[in-house]
Specification:
The structure holds 2 protein chains of 2 kinds. Chain A is α/β, with parallel strands linked by helices. Chain A has helices at about 15-20, 135, 145-150, 190, 225-250, 265-270, 285-295, 315-320, 340-350, 370-380, 385-390, 395-400, 445-455; strands spanning about 1-10, 25-30, 45-55, 60-70, 75-80, 90, 95-100, 100-105, 155-160, 175-180, 190-200, 210, 215-220, 280, 300-305, 325, 355-360, 415-420, 430-435, 440. By secondary structure, chain B is an alpha/beta fold. In chain B, α1 (about 5-30) packs antiparallel against α12 (about 435-455) and α3 (about 210-235) crosses α4 (about 255-260). The chains are: A alpha/beta, B alpha/beta.
C-alpha cells in the first residue's frame, strides 16, 4: 500500500545561496510502506515516532506528525503517515523532533584528556601536514562521544590542528583533513560521514608576542621581525599551493607524465581542483581579508573558522560567498574597547548581512555547549530559526553533507533527536536519540558515575 | 631595506597603526568607565517578578532602595516623592550574582609560584580596578567576586572578596568587613604535573603525599610560632619588662589567622582522596576549611564534606582537561546539595562569569534541583560560603541593594541582563551602554585621526617598535599602568591550565594587534 501525502513548504530561508537547495513550492513525498515488510531478525529496523511536533527544518513545522525510520534512513515524515506494521512505535505526544545537532569544529576522538599528551592526537609536528586525516586517529571509544551525544549532538567535524582550550591554540599551517563523523558506531567506518570534509589551514599568525610553551615565558618580537615571519609563512604556503597545482596537472597526465609521487602534494590536489574546501582559521579582519584574497587567487573554496572579527568584513564574506564557522558567541571580545557583547551580537549582524554561518564549540568537552551558545546569539538578536539552522542544516550545507543530514526529510540519514523542548535551551532533555536509524543510548560515563554515587550509603561514622 | 622603499613605507604604516590602536584602547578604557553619583539615589523597581531566593517569588512586585540598602520588598509599594522609578514590567529581578572563584581585577599573574608556601603574597596588593573584565562580568550580573590567588602552591596567597564597583578606585573595591581568605591547592597543580619545564629541577612537592606534608609542615611551624607569640603576649600582659618580642614571620602570620578562625581557607581540589586528606589535616590542626574549590569529585565524598561543614564551590560542566577532572560530572552540584553540602557554582574565568546564571540552571537538568535551589548556587550559597550572607545573597529588607534585572527568567540561555545594581547604584545599564557606543566610536576615530596627523607631520622620524614602546596614555587620569595585551594572562602559573580560557585561544590564533 502506498500513501501519498504532501507538505507545503515555504521558502523562509534568509540566504540566497540556500534557495537552490531549499526552494520547493510543494513537495510530494512518497513513502513505500509495505504491509508485508518482514521484521528483521535482530533489533527492530523500523521505528515510528508518532504524535510528535516535528521541526523538519525543510519546511513548515508539523504539529502532530509521524517520522518513520527504516534501516539507517528516514523513510517518511509527515502529518498523515501510516505507521508500518511491525514498526517499533515511540509515542512522542508532548515531545518534539529535530534533526540531530551538528558541531562544526571539534577535536572529537582526537583528544581525551587535554593535559595528557598520550591521549592527544590533534596536531602533527611541522607546519605542513595536508596528508594527515582526522578519522585515522578518532577513537570510537572516547568517553567524549556519548557525553556529547547526550546533548543531542549527532554529527561533528573532527578537525586536526584546531586547538581546543587546553591545547594552547591552533598550530601548524596546513593542519590536515577534517573528517565529518556521526557520534555512534563500533568502528570509525560506522561513524564516518565524510572522511575528508575540509582541509585545515591555520592562516599564518602575525604575532609580536608569543608564548613559549616549553618555558611558559612570553617572548616579544619586533614588529618588523613578526612581519617578515608572516610573509615568509605566506610565501611558503603559496609555494605549497603552486607545487600542488603543478603536481595535480602532472597527475592528470599520469599515464604519460613521468613524476615522483608525493603524498603531501597528492593530499592537496583535491583542494586545488576545487573539490575540497579550505577551512581557514583566522580571527582578525586583516587576516581574514588576506585569507580571502589568497583563496581567490588560488581559486580554492574557503570556509572561514573562528572569525572573531568577521563582522568587520561581512560585505567581503557575502560577496565572495565565504561561509563562517563562528567562535562560540559567549567568547569574550578580542579587544578591551570592544562592546562587551561584541561576539554575542555578531551572529545577528552576519545573518542580517546574508553571510552564511554555523556555530561550533571549537572544543571537545564543551561541545555540549553548542546549543547554549546558539541560544545566546538568539538572545542578542539572531532569529531563532536561523540559530537552529546554524547547528543543523547550515553546517551540513557548508561541508557538502546536506543530501545526507541536516533536515528531517525522506531519504536522509536518520540522525535525529526527540526532546521535551527547545534543544538550544539549558534545561531541555533529549529523550530519544537516533543515529543512522539506530535508537542510541544517551547514557554515558557521567550519568553512570552519578547513579553509582547517588546510591552510596551514608558512611558509618 | 634601502633598496625597498615601498616595503619600508608599508612597514611604517603598519607600525603606526599598531601603535595608535594600542593608545586608543588605553583611552577608551577610561571613557567606558562609569561615573556613579556620590549619594545613592532612592530607587523603586516596580512591576517586576522578584526572585527573592530567601522567601520565594513575588509576581508583580516592587523593591524600594534607600541609602544603598533594600528598604522594602513587596507587592504594593508606593513610590516616595524623590524616587527614581525603574519600571521592570515583564522583567525578572534576582540578587546580585556572587562568584566564589574569580581571578579578575588582578594586575599581572595570580600565582606566586616559586615556592610551595606563598602565604605572604596578597591579592589585595595587586587589585586593578581598571580591568575590563570587571565591567564584562558586571554586565553578566556579577556583583561580588572572591578574588583568589592561583593554584601553583599547596598553600597559596591571601585572597579577598570584592564588589564590582566599576569606575571606583582600588580602595573602594573590597567588600567591607568580609573575612579575608587564603588559597590552598591540592593535586596536579601544586605538584606541577602539567607545568614541568624541561631542564628545571622539579619543585617540591611532586606527589600528593608531598602536598599533604607541605601543608602539615607549614601548620606545624605556624602552631609553634603561635605558641611563641601567645607566650610572649601573656608575659607582656602580665607586666613583665624587657621582653624581646618573637621575630615576625609574614609567611606564618596568615596561617596563625587560619588557626584562629580569622582567615578562611579556600582550597582548590579535585580528587576524592585529596579532599578527605585536607579535611583530616584541618582536623589535626584544629582549623576549618571554609570552601573546597572546584571539588569536582566532591560528589564521591559528599557526606564527609557535609559533616566537615565545608562549603563546595564547583563548575557546572567542565571536565577532561586533566586526569583529575576526568571523573567530573555535571551532576556534582545537585548531588552534593542533596547530601546537605552548601554548594555554589563559580567561574574561575572572566568569560564563564558572564553567564553564571546559565551555569546554575544546568543543575536543574543534571540532578533535578528546583528553580530556587539552582538560583541559590550563584547567590545565597556563595554568600554563606564567604560569610557575607547577612549583607548580600537574597532580596530582603536591610540587605545591600545588589540586584540584577533580566529581561526574562534568568535560568535560561535566552536571558539578558538589563541592569546591575550595587549598593543601590546602577553600575551597568544595557541601554546606557548601547546608547554610548556611537560616541565612544567617534572619540576613538578622532583620537586615531589626531595621532595619524601627528605622525604624518614627522615622516622622517624613526618609529619605535610598537610592541616595545606602549607609550603613555594621553590625558590618562589613572595612575596604574595598564597593558592592553595583558589579557588573557599566560596559562602558565595561572589556573588557566586548569580551565578553558576561550579568549586565550582566540588571541593565540589572532596574533598581534
Amino acid at each position: 500500500m502506498k500513501i501519498c501525502f504532501g507538505i507545503q513548504t515555504r521558502n523562509s530561508q534568509r540566504r540566497s545561496s540556500l534557495t537552490d537547495l531549499c526552494v520547493f513550492c510543494l513537495i510530494c513525498l512518497f513513502c513505500g510502506v509495505s504491509s508485508q515488510a518482514q521484521a528483521p531478525s535482530q533489533a527492530p529496523a523500523v521505528y515510528a515516532i508518532t504524535h510528535a511536533k516535528i521541526f523538519t527544518l525543510a519546511g513548515e513545522t508539523i504539529d502532530d506528525g509521524t517520522v518513520v525510520i527504516r534501516d539507517s534512513r528516514i523513510a517518511a515524515v509527515g502529518a498523515q503517515v501510516t505507521v508500518p506494521q511491525g514498526a517499533q512505535v515511540i509515542d512522542a505526544k508532548g515531545l518534539q523532533v529535530y534533526p540531530g545537532l551538528f558541531d562544526s569544529v571539534t577535536q572529537m576522538g582526537l583528544r581525551e584528556i587535554g593535559a595528557v599528551s598520550a591521549t592527544v592526537d590533534t596536531t602533527e609536528t611541522g607546519s605542513f601536514n595536508p596528508d594527515a586525516v582526522a578519522s585515522t586517529a578518532v577513537s570510537p571509544s572516547s568517553e567524549h562521544i556519548p557525553v556529547t551525544r547526550a546533548a543531542g549532538i549527532t554529527e561533528v567535524l573532527a578537525v586536526p590542528a584546531s586547538g581546543g582550550f587546553d591545547s594552547g591554540g591552533s598550530q601548524g599551517i596546513l593542519g590536515g583533513q577534517a573528517s565529518a563523523i556521526q557520534l555512534a558506531g563500533w568502528t570509525i567506518e560506522d561513524m564516518l560521514l565524510k572522511k575528508s570534509a575540509a582541509m585545515v589551514l591555520n592562516w599564518p599568525k602575525f604575532e609580536t608576542r608569543m608564548l613559549d610553551r616549553t618555558t611558559f615565558t612570553r617572548n616579544e618580537k619586533p614588529f618588523s621581525e613578526a612581519k617578515q615571519e608572516y610573509e615568509k609563512n605566506v610565501n611558503e604556503l603559496t609555494d605549497w599551493f603552486e607545487r600542488a597545482r603543478h603536481y595535480s596537472q602532472a597527475m592528470e597526465k599520469s599515464t604519460t607524465a613521468n613524476f615522483n609521487r608525493d603524498v603531501k602534494l597528492e593530499a592537496l590536489a583535491p583542494v586545488i581542483r576545487g573539490e575540497l574546501p579550505l577551512l581557514v582559521f583566522a580571527e582578525r579582519a586583516r587576516e581574514i581579508r588576506n585569507a580571502v584574497e589568497f583563496c581567490e587567487g588560488q581559486k580554492v573554496r574557503m570556509i572561514l573558522a573562528g572569525g572573531a572579527e568577521a563582522y568587520k568584513v561581512k560585505d567581503l564574506l557575502r560577496s565572495k560567498s565565504v561561509p563562517v564557522i563562528l567562535l562560540p558567541p559567549l567568547t569574550l571580545p578580542l579587544d578591551e574597547d570592544d562592546p562587551y557583547d561584541r561576539l554575542l551580537a555578531q551572529p545577528a549582524e552576519l545573518a542580517a548581512a546574508d553571510v552564511k554561518f554555523a556555530f561550533a564549540s571549537f572544543d571537545n568537552s564543551f561541545s555540549r555547549r553548542l546549543g547554549q551558545n546558539a541560544a545566546n546569539a538568539v538572545a542578542h538578536g539572531l532569529p531563532y530559526e536561523e540559530a537552529l539552522r546554524a547547528v543543523t542544516l547550515y553546517p551540513a550545507q557548508i561541508f557538502g553533507l546536506a543530501d545526507q543530514v541536516g533536515t528531517l526529510e525522506e531519504g536522509k540519514i536518520a540522525n535525529l533527536i526527540v526532546t521535551n523542548g527547545d534543544p538550544l535551551e539549558l534545561t531541555t532533555d533529549v529523550r530519544y536519540l537516533f543515529i543512522r536509524g539506530q535508537l542510541t543510548s544517551t547514557n554515558n560515563k557521567q550519568q553512570a558515575l552519578y547513579e553509582k554515587y547517588s546510591k552510596r550509603p551514608k558512611p558509618a561514622n | 631595506m634601502r633598496n625597498a622603499p615601498s616595503f619600508l613605507k608599508k612597514l611604517q604604516h603598519w607600525q603606526v597603526l599598531c601603535f595608535l590602536s594600542l593608545i586608543c584602547f588605553l583611552c577608551l578604557t577610561s571613557v567606558a568607565t562609569a561615573n556613579p553619583p556620590d549619594a545613592p539615589p532612592v530607587i523603586l523597581i516596580q512591576n517586576a517578578t522578584i526572585l527573592t531566593v530567601s522567601h520565594g517569588t513575588i509576581a508583580n512586585g516592587s523593591i524600594l532602595i534607600r541609602d544603598g540598602k533594600i528598604a522594602e520588598v513587596g507587592s504594593s509599594i508606593k513610590a516616595p516623592k524623590d524616587a527614581q522609578v525603574i519600571d521592570a514590567a515583564g522583567q525578572f529581578v534576582i540578587p546580585g550574582i556572587i562568584d566564589c572563584h574569580s581571578h579578575i581585577a588582578v594586575d599581572g599573574s595570580v600565582n606566586e609560584g616559586s615556592v610551595s608556601v606563598s602565604s605572604m603574597a596578597n591579592i589585595a596588593d595587586v587589585l586593578n580596578p581598571d580591568d575590563i573584565d570587571i565591567y564584562r562580568d558586571l554586565a553578566g550580573g556579577v556583583t561580588v567576586a572572591n578574588v583568589l590567588h592561583g593554584s601553583a602552591n599547596a598553600i597559596g596567597g591571601q585572597t579577598m572578596v570584592i564588589k564590582l564597583r566599576w569606575g571606583q578606585p582600588a580602595a573602594k573595591l573590597p567588600f567591607e568587613g568580609a573575612v579575608p581568605g587564603i588559597k590552598f591547592a591540592l593535586g596536579e597543580n601544586p605538584k606541577r604535573t602539567n607545568f614541568r619545564i624541561p631542564a628545571q629541577t622539579p619543585r617540591y612537592p611532586a606527589t600528593r603525599m608531598g602536598v599533604e606534608e607541605t601543608i602539615r609542615a607549614a601548620f606545624t611551624e605556624a602552631r609553634d610560632y603561635k605558641k611563641t607569640w601567645d607566650a610572649y603576649i601573656k608575659r607582656s600582659d602580665a607586666g613583665e619588662k624587657n621582653l624581646i618580642p618573637p621575630r615576625r614571620d609574614l609567611r606564618l602570620d596568615p596561617l596563625v589567622e587560619v588557626l584562629e578562625g580569622k582567615r578562611y581557607v579556600h582550597a582548590h581540589c579535585y580528587r576524592e582522596d585529596e579532599i578527605l586528606m585536607l579535611l583530616r589535616v584541618a582536623k589535626e590542626f584544629g582549623f576549618k576549611v571554609r570552601t573546597l574549590q572546584h571539588v569536582l569529585e566532591g560528589y564521591k565524598v559528599a557526606d564527609e564534606i557535609a559533616a566537615s561543614g565545608a562549603g563546595a564551590s564547583t563548575f557546572s560542566d567542565w571536565w577532561a582537561y586533566k586526569v583529575e577532572a576526568y571523573d567530573a560530572i555535571p551532576y556534582n552540584a545537585a548531588l552534593m546539595t542533596r547530601r546537605g553540602v552548601i554548594v555554589s557554582v563559580n567561574s574561575d574565568d572572566a568569560e564563564e562569569a558572564t553567564h553564571l546564571n546559565q551555569e546554575a540552571a544546568k543543575s536543574m537538568k543534571f540532578g533535578g534541583l528546583t528553580h530556587d535551589e539552582a538560583l541559590k548556587l550563584v547567590t545565597l550559597n556563595p554568600a554563606i560560603q564567604l560569610g557575607i550572607d547577612k549583607r548580600v545573597g537574597s532580596i530582603d529588607a536591610g540587605k545591600d541593594a545588589d540586584l540584577v534585572i533580566y529581561n526574562r527568567d534568568p535560568l535560561s540561555a535566552y536571558a539578558v541582563v538589563q541592569k546591575t545594581l550595587i549598593d543601590g547604584r546602577v553600575y551597568f545599564d544595557r541601554e546606557r551602554d548601547i546608547a554610548g557606543r556611537a560616541d565612544r566610536e567617534k572619540e576613538k576615530k578622532e583620537l586615531l585621526e589626531k595621532e595619524k596627523k601627528a605622525a604624518e607631520k614627522k615622516p622622517e622620524e624613526k618609529k619605535p617598535d610598537a610592541t616595545v614602546t606602549i607609550g603613555q596614555k594621553p590625558g590618562e587620569k589613572k595612575s596604574e599602568e595598564k597593558k592592553p595585551e595583558e589579557k588573557p594572562k599566560p596559562p602558565t602559573e595561572n589556573e588557566t591550565q586548569d580551565k578553558p580560557l576561550e579568549s586565550f585561544r582566540v588571541v593565540v590564533r589572532g596574533g598581534a594587534q
